[in-house]
Amino acid sequence: MRITHKYLIYILLILPHTLSLTLNQPLLVSFSSTRSPTPHIPAVSEYVTTSSSSKTLVSTLTNVVNSLIPVQGRVDSVDSSAPPTSTSELLQRISEDYTTSNYLWTGDIDTACFTEDCKFTDPTITFTGLDTFLQNTNSLAKIIPYITYSSTLKSTLNTIKNVNDDKSYILTTWKMYGKFKYGSILSVSGSTKFYYNPKFQISEYEEKWDIPVDVALRQLLPWSASEFQRDKKKELFKLRGYGNVKSGLIINELIEFSPIINFDKIDGTWKVIHGPHFGILEKILNVKFEYINYIIKGNKIETRVKYKGWGGGELTASGNLKFNRDDCKIKFNDFGFYPGNSEEPFAENVIQGISELFFFEDLSFFPIVYLDEELCTFKFPALGVKITSKRT
Question: Which residues constitute the signal peptide according to the record (predicted)?
Fold first, then answer.
C-alpha cells in the first residue's frame, strides 16, 4: 500500500519516543551519593500503569516507522573512546547528553555509557538492546527537522544526582519543549533512572512522565496548542485577586507552552487581572482597585487606575510606546489625579511635577512575554514581577 508523505508525518508525530520536555529551569548537579530513603519523584505515567491500547499503538507505529525509514548500521552520536571510569564521569556524560546533545529530541546519546543489552523503558514501550534504541531514535530523528522548528526544540536538565539504593542509579529530572510546523506544541516533564553496573555502564534505562500518556499524545494533534491556551485562559479568568498564586502559575504555564507575541494585536483596552504588587499596595494603602486599565492605540498609551478608599478617585498617565522585538518602552508625559468622582484634575501642575520626579526612564522597559488577541503579559523588571491584563 502506498503511504503518502503527509500520512507518514502524522505517524511520526504520534510516535512518542522519549516524549518529555520543557524549559528554563536551573540545573542542579550533585556528585554525592544518597542512601535510603530514595528521593520521591512524582510521576503520573510509567510503563506498568499505561493502558495496553497505548502500548500497542506506540509499538506498532515504531515498527512501521523503522520499516519505512531504515537506518543502516550503528550511528554513534558521541565518539567516546571508552566507557566511564567513575560515577562522577558517568554523571557528567549523562548531563551532556541532555545539555549538549539534546538527546530527548535527537536520540544522540553517549553510547559508550550503555551496555549492549541495556533495557530501555518509557511509559509507552519497553525493549532490550542498544542497537534497537538507536534504530528507533535515528529513524525518527531523520524526519524531525522537516516537521518542527528546530530552534524551539529544547531538552532541559533540571536535576541530576547519584543514588545508592538496592541498585545504584543516576536520577535525572527534566523537561522537553518543541513546536511543530503544523501547529502543535509538545511540553512534557519527567524523570529518568539510569541503573549502572560496577563498570559504570548503564544496564537499564527507566523513564517516567509527569502527565498522563493520553495527554502527552493529544499534544501532538494540530489543535492541541489552541485547546491548551483556551482551557488555561478560561481557568485564569475565573480567578480573583491581583496576587493570586494560582493565577501566577497558570500565566507561567501559558508563557512556557507558547510565548505568543504579536504586536499587531496590542491595540485596545486592557484590564489588569494579575500583578502581585497591586495586591500588596491594596493592603498597605487600605484601598481597593476597581480597575487598572491600559488603553493602547498605535504608539500611544493611557493608564487609568480607579480606586476606593480615602475618598476614592482615579489616577491617570499617558505617553508613548516604542516596540523593539519583544521589548516595550513606555515614556509617560502627562499625569493626573481626579479625586472622588470629579471630572476636573486636582492641582494639575503639582501632580505633574511630583509625578515627573518619580518617573525614571531607565525603569521604563517592559519585556512582553505573552500577547494574543485577549491576553497580554509583560515583565516589570524594577519589581521582578509579571503583570497580566485581559482585553475588555
Answer: 1-20
Block residue for cell numbers 494540530: 222
The Cα–Cα gap between 359 and 379 comes to 17
Write the DSSP assignment of 158-211 as a string of letters: EEEEEEESSSEEEEEEEEEEEEBTTS-EEEEEEEEEEEE-TTS-EEEEEEEESS
Q: Determine contact, residues 79/245, Cβ cutoff 8 Å.
A: no
* pTM of the shown model: 0.59
The answer to whether 356 touches 368, Cβ cutoff 8 Å, is no
Cα distances (Å, whole numbers) of residue 234 to 27, 104, 252:
33, 32, 15
Q: pLDDT per residue over 89-138, tens digit each?
A: 999 999 999 999 999 998 899 999 999 999 999 998 899 999 889 888 87
Nearest partner of 314 among 336, 297, 329, 285, judged by Cα: 336
Residue burial 225-248, b: 16+ Cβ < 10 Å; e: rest:
beebbeebbeebeeeeebbbeebb
Q: How many CB atoms lie within 10 A of CB 89?
A: 13
Amino acid at 45: S
CA distance 200 to 216: 32
CA distances in angstroms from 278 to 60, 288, 328, listed in the order given: 54, 10, 20
Helix (H) or strand (E) holding 378: strand 375-380
| Cβ 338 vs Cβ 316: under 8 Å | yes
Q: How many CB atoms lie within 10 A of CB 321?
A: 18
The span from the CA of 81 to the CA of 304, in Å, is 66
> Structural domains in the chain?
5-222 (3.10.450.50), 225-391 (2.40.128.280)
CA distance linking residue 197 with residue 9, whole number of Å: 38
